[in-house]
Amino acid sequence: MKVAVLDIKGKDTGRKAELSDSVFAIEPNNHAVYLDVKQYLAHQRQGTHKAKERGEIAGSTRKIKKQKGTGTARAGSIKSPIFRGGGRIFGPRPKDYTQKLNKNVKRLARKSALTIKSKENAIVVLEDFSFDAPKTKDFIEVLKSLGLENKKSLFVLGDSNNSVYLSSRNLERSEVVTNSELSTYKILNANNIVLLEGSLEGIEATLNK
Q1: Cα-Cα-Cα-Cα dihedral of 63, 69, 72, 77, to 10°?
Q2: Using an 8 Å Cβ cutoff, are 179 and 203 in contact?
Q3: Which of 30, 84, 143, 144 is spaced 20 to 30 A from 69 at the CA atom?
């Protein structure tokens, strides 16, 4: 599949980029996509939630009133969960939310996501570019030229480029990643994917292993 290569002004350079059918034109596997997105979201959780139980509360352990004759329920410790300031019953404990997923399934999920975007005509191939210095307004001009100013966009670079990354960092709707950082969630979360020419070879090499 051939796609026109645009420059940062949004104009056709006259060149064509070849998008591999084995990556951008497969039969999407929705279950693989679901598993990969679920794993990504699970890995965003820190799992550091914790509440103190009665054995961890600082307080006296003496019996607070006599066992019988008070007319109320018996009580043995001020740290009991039924008292204000006592421990919590079945409170949250630290937990590891990481999930294991086969590498082949992850590759299939990313190829499926790229195919979905390709069918939606939401993939743009852009010639490699850089800025002399990080400036958000320069990146905004690129977005305007491509008609992506008010859309969620994901720019995929071949190699890390600090000036481009820093120029986009303050923009809520735009994200810049390298081809090695590309994930199924990020692909599907964006309205448009902008692939720089230098990223194509790396994406296809990674996903066709």
Answers
A1: 0
A2: yes
A3: 84
Residue 173: CB atoms within 10 A of its CB come to 14
DSSP secondary structure letters along 145-199: HHT-TTS-EEEEESS--HHHHHHHTT-TTEEEEEGGG--HHHHHH-SEEEEEHHH
Count the Cβ atoms, other than its own, within 10 Å of residue 102: 10
Dihedral sign for Cα atoms in the order 79, 85, 90, 96: negative
Both structure tokens of 125: 């191939």
Domain range summary for the chain, segments of one domain joined by +: 2-45+99-207, 46-96
Report whether 57 contacts 30 (CB < 8 A): no
CA distances from 195 to 35, 115, 122, 174, 185 (A): 24, 14, 11, 13, 16
Residues 6+ apart with CB under 8 A from 64: 75, 76, 77, 78
Q: Which fold has domain 2-45+99-207?
A: Ribosomal Protein L4; Chain: A; (3.40.1370)
Instruction: Find tokens 């070849």 and name the residue.
Output: 18
Task: Return the residue matching tokens 């056709």.
Answer: 12
Average pLDDT of adjacent 10-residue blocks, the chain of 209 residues? 91 92 95 97 95 92 92 92 92 95 96 96 94 94 93 94 94 94 96 94 90
